[in-house]
Structure formats: structure tokens, C-alpha cells
Amino acid sequence: MLTLIVTCGIAYLIWRISEQLPDLVFRLSEIQRDLAEIRRQLDNNSKDDS
To answer: Domain extents for the chain?
Structure first.
């Protein structure tokens, strides 16, 4: 009986995580794009100062 409960719990957690995966991937890509933009601006500022 305990094995059944644990298996159901693990299946539920995997289902919840997989449901959130597309949103998580989208947010990570947005953060990566923002960081690339900040890095570009910093590089441009350092080139302007030289």
C-alpha cells in the first residue's frame, strides 16, 4: 500500500513539473536574452570609453 502511495506521489510531481516546463523554458530564454543585451551594452560602453 505504501508503495502505491509513493508511486502516485512521484507520478503527480512529474506531471506537475512537466506541466510547468514550457513556461520555465520561456522565462529562461527571456533572462538569457536580457543578459545578452546587458552584456552588449556594457561592451559598447567600454569601447566608447577607450
So the answer is: 1-50
